[in-house]
Amino acid sequence: MAAVATCGSVAASTGSAVATASKSNVTSFQRRGPRASVTNDSGPRLVSIAGTRPSVRNGQLLVSTGLPALDQLLGGGLAVGTVLLIEEDKYNIYSPLLFKYFLAEGIVNGHTLLVASAKEDPANILQELPAPLLDDKCKKEFDEDVYNHKTPESNIKMKIAWRYQLLPKMEIGPVSSSRFGHYYDASKRMPQELIEASNWHGFFLPEKISSTLKVEPCSLTPGYTKLLQFIQNIIYEEGFDGSNPQKKQRNILRIGIQNLGSPLWGDDICCAENGGNSHSLTKFLYVLRGLLRTSLSACIITMPTHLIQNKAIIARVTTLSDVVVGLESFIGSERETNPLYKDYHGLIHIRQIPRLNNLICDESDVKDLAFKLKRKLFTIEDWRKSLWSFPNLKI
Protein backbone atom coordinates (compact mmCIF):
# COMPACT_ATOMS: atom_id res chain seq x y z
CA MET A 1 0.00 0.00 0.00
CA ALA A 2 1.00 3.56 -0.45
CA ALA A 3 2.43 5.40 2.49
CA VAL A 4 -0.38 6.62 4.80
CA ALA A 5 -0.29 10.15 6.21
CA THR A 6 -0.39 10.36 10.00
CA CYS A 7 -2.29 13.63 10.13
CA GLY A 8 -6.09 13.23 10.23
CA SER A 9 -6.67 16.35 8.12
CA VAL A 10 -5.20 14.70 5.05
CA ALA A 11 -7.01 11.35 5.43
CA ALA A 12 -9.26 12.03 2.46
CA SER A 13 -6.39 12.83 0.13
CA THR A 14 -4.52 9.77 1.39
CA GLY A 15 -7.49 7.57 0.59
CA SER A 16 -7.60 8.80 -2.98
CA ALA A 17 -3.86 8.25 -3.29
CA VAL A 18 -4.26 4.67 -2.09
CA ALA A 19 -7.05 4.07 -4.57
CA THR A 20 -4.96 5.47 -7.39
CA ALA A 21 -1.96 3.33 -6.38
CA SER A 22 -4.16 0.22 -6.13
CA LYS A 23 -5.40 0.67 -9.67
CA SER A 24 -1.94 1.00 -11.12
CA ASN A 25 -0.41 -1.67 -8.84
CA VAL A 26 2.37 0.76 -7.90
CA THR A 27 3.34 1.68 -4.35
CA SER A 28 5.62 4.32 -3.01
CA PHE A 29 8.27 1.63 -2.60
CA GLN A 30 8.04 0.31 -6.17
CA ARG A 31 9.46 1.47 -9.45
CA ARG A 32 7.03 2.23 -12.21
CA GLY A 33 7.19 -0.37 -14.98
CA PRO A 34 6.61 -4.09 -15.52
CA ARG A 35 7.09 -6.26 -12.43
CA ALA A 36 8.67 -9.69 -12.19
CA SER A 37 5.36 -11.25 -11.14
CA VAL A 38 3.37 -9.97 -14.10
CA THR A 39 2.11 -12.89 -16.17
CA ASN A 40 1.06 -11.12 -19.35
CA ASP A 41 3.37 -10.59 -22.30
CA SER A 42 2.97 -6.82 -22.46
CA GLY A 43 6.53 -6.18 -21.37
CA PRO A 44 9.81 -7.75 -20.23
CA ARG A 45 9.82 -9.82 -17.07
CA LEU A 46 12.41 -11.57 -14.94
CA VAL A 47 13.26 -15.01 -16.25
CA SER A 48 12.56 -17.78 -13.73
CA ILE A 49 14.89 -20.73 -14.31
CA ALA A 50 15.94 -23.44 -11.86
CA GLY A 51 19.39 -22.86 -10.41
CA THR A 52 19.43 -19.13 -11.11
CA ARG A 53 18.76 -15.94 -9.18
CA PRO A 54 18.90 -12.22 -9.95
CA SER A 55 21.85 -10.19 -8.77
CA VAL A 56 20.99 -7.86 -5.89
CA ARG A 57 23.28 -5.26 -7.43
CA ASN A 58 22.03 -5.00 -11.00
CA GLY A 59 19.32 -7.63 -11.53
CA GLN A 60 21.57 -9.67 -13.86
CA LEU A 61 20.66 -13.38 -13.92
CA LEU A 62 23.26 -15.44 -12.02
CA VAL A 63 24.21 -19.11 -11.86
CA SER A 64 26.35 -20.77 -9.23
CA THR A 65 29.92 -21.82 -9.97
CA GLY A 66 29.37 -24.93 -7.83
CA LEU A 67 31.53 -23.43 -5.09
CA PRO A 68 29.44 -21.14 -2.83
CA ALA A 69 32.51 -19.42 -1.37
CA LEU A 70 33.59 -18.46 -4.89
CA ASP A 71 30.05 -17.26 -5.66
CA GLN A 72 30.32 -14.81 -2.78
CA LEU A 73 33.66 -13.50 -4.00
CA LEU A 74 32.19 -12.90 -7.47
CA GLY A 75 29.26 -10.88 -6.14
CA GLY A 76 26.69 -13.65 -5.78
CA GLY A 77 27.51 -15.97 -8.68
CA LEU A 78 28.50 -16.06 -12.34
CA ALA A 79 26.40 -13.86 -14.59
CA VAL A 80 24.63 -15.56 -17.49
CA GLY A 81 26.33 -14.65 -20.75
CA THR A 82 29.83 -14.39 -19.28
CA VAL A 83 33.13 -16.30 -19.35
CA LEU A 84 34.90 -17.55 -16.22
CA LEU A 85 38.59 -18.15 -16.90
CA ILE A 86 40.47 -20.42 -14.48
CA GLU A 87 44.24 -20.02 -14.65
CA GLU A 88 45.46 -23.57 -14.04
CA ASP A 89 47.87 -24.35 -11.24
CA LYS A 90 51.33 -25.51 -12.27
CA TYR A 91 50.63 -29.25 -12.09
CA ASN A 92 46.94 -28.99 -13.01
CA ILE A 93 45.82 -30.71 -9.80
CA TYR A 94 43.25 -28.29 -8.37
CA SER A 95 41.87 -26.45 -11.41
CA PRO A 96 40.04 -29.58 -12.68
CA LEU A 97 38.11 -29.56 -9.39
CA LEU A 98 36.62 -26.12 -10.06
CA PHE A 99 35.83 -27.26 -13.59
CA LYS A 100 33.97 -30.32 -12.29
CA TYR A 101 32.11 -28.36 -9.59
CA PHE A 102 30.73 -26.07 -12.28
CA LEU A 103 29.48 -29.04 -14.33
CA ALA A 104 28.13 -30.88 -11.28
CA GLU A 105 26.10 -27.81 -10.31
CA GLY A 106 24.56 -27.88 -13.77
CA ILE A 107 23.49 -31.52 -13.43
CA VAL A 108 21.96 -30.94 -9.98
CA ASN A 109 19.91 -28.02 -11.34
CA GLY A 110 18.90 -29.76 -14.56
CA HIS A 111 20.90 -27.43 -16.81
CA THR A 112 22.16 -28.53 -20.23
CA LEU A 113 25.91 -29.20 -20.36
CA LEU A 114 28.39 -28.79 -23.19
CA VAL A 115 31.77 -30.30 -22.29
CA ALA A 116 34.74 -29.74 -24.59
CA SER A 117 38.21 -31.22 -24.20
CA ALA A 118 41.22 -32.11 -26.30
CA LYS A 119 42.69 -34.36 -23.63
CA GLU A 120 39.92 -36.41 -22.03
CA ASP A 121 36.67 -37.83 -23.37
CA PRO A 122 33.76 -35.70 -21.99
CA ALA A 123 31.91 -38.90 -21.03
CA ASN A 124 34.80 -39.80 -18.72
CA ILE A 125 34.84 -36.30 -17.23
CA LEU A 126 31.17 -36.63 -16.27
CA GLN A 127 31.88 -39.94 -14.57
CA GLU A 128 34.36 -38.17 -12.28
CA LEU A 129 32.01 -35.40 -11.10
CA PRO A 130 31.74 -35.11 -7.29
CA ALA A 131 28.58 -36.20 -5.47
CA PRO A 132 26.30 -33.44 -4.14
CA LEU A 133 25.58 -32.85 -0.47
CA LEU A 134 21.90 -32.03 -0.74
CA ASP A 135 20.18 -32.42 2.63
CA ASP A 136 20.55 -32.62 6.37
CA LYS A 137 21.45 -36.30 6.40
CA CYS A 138 24.79 -35.32 4.84
CA LYS A 139 25.46 -32.74 7.57
CA LYS A 140 26.93 -35.32 9.94
CA GLU A 141 29.58 -36.33 7.41
CA PHE A 142 30.30 -32.68 6.70
CA ASP A 143 30.71 -31.80 10.37
CA GLU A 144 33.07 -34.75 10.86
CA ASP A 145 35.20 -33.54 7.96
CA VAL A 146 35.43 -30.03 9.41
CA TYR A 147 36.15 -31.31 12.93
CA ASN A 148 38.96 -33.60 11.76
CA HIS A 149 40.71 -30.67 10.13
CA LYS A 150 40.33 -28.12 12.93
CA THR A 151 43.55 -26.62 14.26
CA PRO A 152 44.08 -26.02 17.98
CA GLU A 153 44.27 -22.30 17.31
CA SER A 154 40.70 -22.30 15.99
CA ASN A 155 39.40 -23.05 19.50
CA ILE A 156 41.10 -20.04 21.06
CA LYS A 157 39.14 -16.83 21.29
CA MET A 158 41.34 -14.08 19.90
CA LYS A 159 40.94 -10.44 19.12
CA ILE A 160 41.08 -10.01 15.36
CA ALA A 161 42.18 -6.85 13.59
CA TRP A 162 39.29 -4.79 12.28
CA ARG A 163 40.36 -5.48 8.70
CA TYR A 164 39.64 -9.19 9.06
CA GLN A 165 36.48 -8.69 11.11
CA LEU A 166 34.91 -6.86 8.17
CA LEU A 167 35.76 -9.52 5.61
CA PRO A 168 32.79 -11.58 4.38
CA LYS A 169 32.52 -14.98 6.03
CA MET A 170 32.80 -17.91 3.67
CA GLU A 171 29.59 -19.91 3.73
CA ILE A 172 30.11 -23.60 4.49
CA GLY A 173 27.74 -26.51 4.96
CA PRO A 174 25.34 -28.68 3.00
CA VAL A 175 22.15 -27.10 1.67
CA SER A 176 18.80 -28.11 0.26
CA SER A 177 18.63 -29.06 -3.41
CA SER A 178 16.22 -26.17 -3.97
CA ARG A 179 18.70 -23.50 -2.90
CA PHE A 180 21.17 -21.56 -5.00
CA GLY A 181 24.58 -23.20 -4.94
CA HIS A 182 25.45 -26.61 -3.53
CA TYR A 183 28.32 -28.37 -1.83
CA TYR A 184 29.99 -31.50 -3.13
CA ASP A 185 31.80 -34.45 -1.63
CA ALA A 186 35.10 -34.76 -3.46
CA SER A 187 35.58 -38.29 -2.12
CA LYS A 188 32.46 -39.64 -3.85
CA ARG A 189 31.19 -39.70 -7.43
CA MET A 190 27.97 -38.29 -8.84
CA PRO A 191 25.18 -40.95 -8.81
CA GLN A 192 24.94 -42.62 -12.20
CA GLU A 193 21.19 -42.03 -12.43
CA LEU A 194 21.72 -38.26 -12.24
CA ILE A 195 24.24 -38.36 -15.07
CA GLU A 196 22.00 -40.53 -17.24
CA ALA A 197 19.03 -38.21 -16.66
CA SER A 198 21.01 -35.12 -17.63
CA ASN A 199 21.10 -33.48 -21.04
CA TRP A 200 24.71 -33.03 -22.17
CA HIS A 201 26.77 -32.66 -25.33
CA GLY A 202 30.39 -33.71 -25.67
CA PHE A 203 33.14 -32.30 -27.89
CA PHE A 204 36.24 -34.50 -27.95
CA LEU A 205 38.73 -32.86 -30.31
CA PRO A 206 40.48 -36.03 -31.60
CA GLU A 207 37.08 -37.28 -32.82
CA LYS A 208 36.21 -33.99 -34.54
CA ILE A 209 39.42 -33.23 -36.44
CA SER A 210 40.38 -35.00 -39.64
CA SER A 211 44.02 -35.37 -40.59
CA THR A 212 43.15 -34.29 -44.15
CA LEU A 213 41.47 -31.04 -43.09
CA LYS A 214 42.79 -28.05 -45.03
CA VAL A 215 43.60 -24.96 -42.96
CA GLU A 216 43.38 -21.46 -44.41
CA PRO A 217 46.24 -19.12 -43.49
CA CYS A 218 45.61 -16.44 -40.82
CA SER A 219 42.47 -18.18 -39.62
CA LEU A 220 41.50 -19.94 -36.43
CA THR A 221 43.10 -23.30 -35.72
CA PRO A 222 40.95 -26.23 -36.87
CA GLY A 223 40.17 -27.18 -33.28
CA TYR A 224 38.86 -23.71 -32.40
CA THR A 225 36.84 -23.50 -35.61
CA LYS A 226 35.16 -26.85 -35.03
CA LEU A 227 34.41 -26.00 -31.40
CA LEU A 228 32.84 -22.64 -32.25
CA GLN A 229 30.64 -24.30 -34.87
CA PHE A 230 29.63 -26.97 -32.36
CA ILE A 231 28.72 -24.40 -29.68
CA GLN A 232 26.82 -22.25 -32.15
CA ASN A 233 24.78 -25.21 -33.38
CA ILE A 234 23.80 -26.24 -29.86
CA ILE A 235 22.80 -22.68 -28.92
CA TYR A 236 20.67 -22.20 -32.04
CA GLU A 237 19.16 -25.69 -32.35
CA GLU A 238 18.11 -25.93 -28.70
CA GLY A 239 16.82 -22.38 -28.49
CA PHE A 240 19.25 -20.91 -25.98
CA ASP A 241 19.46 -17.75 -28.11
CA GLY A 242 15.71 -17.14 -28.01
CA SER A 243 15.22 -17.28 -31.79
CA ASN A 244 13.95 -20.86 -31.61
CA PRO A 245 11.83 -21.08 -28.43
CA GLN A 246 12.70 -24.00 -26.20
CA LYS A 247 10.04 -26.69 -26.21
CA LYS A 248 10.16 -27.22 -22.45
CA GLN A 249 10.78 -24.77 -19.63
CA ARG A 250 13.56 -22.29 -20.36
CA ASN A 251 16.96 -23.57 -19.35
CA ILE A 252 20.63 -22.63 -19.02
CA LEU A 253 23.47 -23.96 -21.17
CA ARG A 254 26.64 -24.52 -19.15
CA ILE A 255 29.75 -24.70 -21.34
CA GLY A 256 32.98 -26.17 -19.99
CA ILE A 257 36.21 -26.02 -22.04
CA GLN A 258 39.25 -27.80 -20.65
CA ASN A 259 42.94 -26.86 -21.18
CA LEU A 260 42.18 -24.23 -23.83
CA GLY A 261 45.33 -22.81 -25.42
CA SER A 262 47.40 -25.94 -24.82
CA PRO A 263 49.25 -27.67 -27.69
CA LEU A 264 46.54 -30.35 -27.64
CA TRP A 265 44.20 -27.81 -29.26
CA GLY A 266 46.72 -27.23 -32.07
CA ASP A 267 47.83 -23.91 -30.59
CA ASP A 268 51.50 -22.98 -30.37
CA ILE A 269 51.31 -20.09 -27.88
CA CYS A 270 52.70 -22.38 -25.17
CA CYS A 271 55.61 -23.44 -27.36
CA ALA A 272 56.88 -20.16 -28.84
CA GLU A 273 56.69 -16.49 -27.93
CA ASN A 274 55.72 -15.43 -31.44
CA GLY A 275 54.09 -18.45 -32.99
CA GLY A 276 52.07 -18.60 -36.16
CA ASN A 277 48.79 -18.87 -34.23
CA SER A 278 49.40 -16.04 -31.76
CA HIS A 279 46.02 -14.42 -32.52
CA SER A 280 43.99 -17.61 -32.88
CA LEU A 281 43.10 -17.92 -29.19
CA THR A 282 42.02 -14.30 -28.81
CA LYS A 283 39.88 -14.53 -31.95
CA PHE A 284 38.22 -17.62 -30.53
CA LEU A 285 37.43 -15.88 -27.23
CA TYR A 286 36.08 -12.83 -29.04
CA VAL A 287 33.61 -14.91 -31.07
CA LEU A 288 32.73 -17.11 -28.08
CA ARG A 289 31.87 -14.12 -25.92
CA GLY A 290 29.62 -12.80 -28.68
CA LEU A 291 27.70 -16.10 -28.69
CA LEU A 292 27.37 -16.06 -24.90
CA ARG A 293 26.15 -12.46 -24.73
CA THR A 294 23.14 -13.30 -26.92
CA SER A 295 22.14 -16.56 -25.24
CA LEU A 296 21.15 -18.12 -21.92
CA SER A 297 24.56 -19.65 -21.36
CA ALA A 298 27.61 -19.40 -19.12
CA CYS A 299 31.10 -20.73 -19.75
CA ILE A 300 34.05 -21.90 -17.68
CA ILE A 301 37.47 -22.26 -19.29
CA THR A 302 40.64 -23.69 -17.77
CA MET A 303 43.86 -22.46 -19.36
CA PRO A 304 47.57 -23.16 -18.66
CA THR A 305 48.50 -19.47 -18.60
CA HIS A 306 51.79 -20.25 -16.84
CA LEU A 307 52.96 -21.95 -20.05
CA ILE A 308 52.08 -19.08 -22.40
CA GLN A 309 55.34 -17.50 -23.54
CA ASN A 310 54.02 -14.12 -24.68
CA LYS A 311 52.70 -12.02 -21.79
CA ALA A 312 50.87 -9.75 -24.22
CA ILE A 313 48.66 -12.72 -25.15
CA ILE A 314 47.85 -13.28 -21.48
CA ALA A 315 46.81 -9.64 -21.17
CA ARG A 316 44.52 -9.93 -24.20
CA VAL A 317 43.01 -13.18 -22.92
CA THR A 318 42.29 -11.51 -19.58
CA THR A 319 40.61 -8.58 -21.32
CA LEU A 320 38.40 -10.93 -23.36
CA SER A 321 37.31 -12.83 -20.22
CA ASP A 322 34.73 -11.53 -17.78
CA VAL A 323 35.94 -13.26 -14.62
CA VAL A 324 39.53 -14.39 -14.09
CA VAL A 325 40.51 -16.64 -11.17
CA GLY A 326 44.08 -17.86 -10.74
CA LEU A 327 45.18 -20.91 -8.74
CA GLU A 328 48.71 -21.02 -7.31
CA SER A 329 49.64 -24.40 -5.86
CA PHE A 330 52.28 -24.70 -3.14
CA ILE A 331 53.57 -27.99 -4.58
CA GLY A 332 57.25 -27.63 -5.43
CA SER A 333 57.51 -24.10 -4.03
CA GLU A 334 59.11 -22.66 -0.88
CA ARG A 335 55.68 -21.99 0.56
CA GLU A 336 55.03 -25.73 0.79
CA THR A 337 57.32 -25.92 3.85
CA ASN A 338 56.53 -22.45 5.21
CA PRO A 339 54.69 -22.80 8.57
CA LEU A 340 52.60 -19.79 7.64
CA TYR A 341 50.84 -21.86 4.95
CA LYS A 342 50.85 -25.21 6.71
CA ASP A 343 47.04 -25.47 6.67
CA TYR A 344 46.62 -24.70 2.96
CA HIS A 345 47.42 -26.18 -0.43
CA GLY A 346 47.68 -22.97 -2.44
CA LEU A 347 46.57 -19.39 -3.05
CA ILE A 348 43.57 -18.28 -5.06
CA HIS A 349 43.71 -14.94 -6.88
CA ILE A 350 40.53 -13.14 -7.96
CA ARG A 351 42.18 -11.17 -10.74
CA GLN A 352 39.08 -9.78 -12.39
CA ILE A 353 35.33 -9.57 -11.75
CA PRO A 354 32.85 -8.30 -14.34
CA ARG A 355 31.30 -4.91 -14.59
CA LEU A 356 28.68 -5.69 -17.20
CA ASN A 357 27.78 -3.22 -19.96
CA ASN A 358 31.03 -1.34 -19.33
CA LEU A 359 34.36 -1.27 -21.10
CA ILE A 360 36.37 -2.06 -17.98
CA CYS A 361 36.28 -4.70 -15.26
CA ASP A 362 36.64 -4.45 -11.50
CA GLU A 363 39.29 -5.96 -9.25
CA SER A 364 38.36 -7.78 -6.08
CA ASP A 365 39.07 -6.02 -2.78
CA VAL A 366 39.80 -9.37 -1.08
CA LYS A 367 43.41 -10.33 -1.75
CA ASP A 368 44.51 -12.68 1.03
CA LEU A 369 42.79 -15.89 -0.03
CA ALA A 370 44.03 -19.46 0.17
CA PHE A 371 42.43 -22.79 -0.64
CA LYS A 372 42.72 -26.25 0.81
CA LEU A 373 41.37 -29.60 -0.27
CA LYS A 374 40.11 -31.54 2.69
CA ARG A 375 39.01 -35.15 2.58
CA LYS A 376 35.66 -34.16 1.14
CA LEU A 377 35.58 -30.42 0.55
CA PHE A 378 37.42 -27.73 -1.37
CA THR A 379 37.37 -24.59 0.77
CA ILE A 380 38.51 -20.97 0.39
CA GLU A 381 39.71 -19.02 3.43
CA ASP A 382 41.67 -15.95 4.45
CA TRP A 383 45.22 -17.29 4.88
CA ARG A 384 46.33 -14.35 7.06
CA LYS A 385 44.41 -15.78 9.98
CA SER A 386 47.48 -18.03 10.36
CA LEU A 387 49.33 -14.94 11.56
CA TRP A 388 47.34 -15.12 14.78
CA SER A 389 49.40 -18.19 15.65
CA PHE A 390 52.67 -16.36 14.83
CA PRO A 391 52.29 -12.92 16.46
CA ASN A 392 55.99 -12.11 16.14
CA LEU A 393 56.28 -13.20 12.51
CA LYS A 394 57.07 -10.45 10.02
CA ILE A 395 56.01 -10.72 6.38
From TrEMBL:
It holds the Pfam family PAXNEB. It comes from the Eukaryota. Pathway: tRNA modification; 5-methoxycarbonylmethyl-2-thiouridine-tRNA biosynthesis. The keyword Glycoprotein does not apply. Keywords: Cytoplasm, Nucleus, tRNA processing. InterPro entries: Elongator_complex_protein_4, P-loop_NTPase. It is found in: Cytoplasm; Nucleus. One of its GO terms (cellular component) is elongator holoenzyme complex. One of its GO terms (biological process) is tRNA wobble uridine modification. Coiled coil: none annotated. Signal peptide: none annotated. Component of the elongator complex which is required for multiple tRNA modifications, including mcm5U (5-methoxycarbonylmethyl uridine), mcm5s2U (5-methoxycarbonylmethyl-2-thiouridine), and ncm5U (5-carbamoylmethyl uridine). The elongator complex catalyzes the formation of carboxymethyluridine in the wobble base at position 34 in tRNAs. PANTHER family: ELONGATOR COMPLEX PROTEIN 4 (PTHR12896:SF1), PAX6 NEIGHBOR PROTEIN PAXNEB (PTHR12896). This is Elongator complex protein 4. It comes from Homo sapiens.
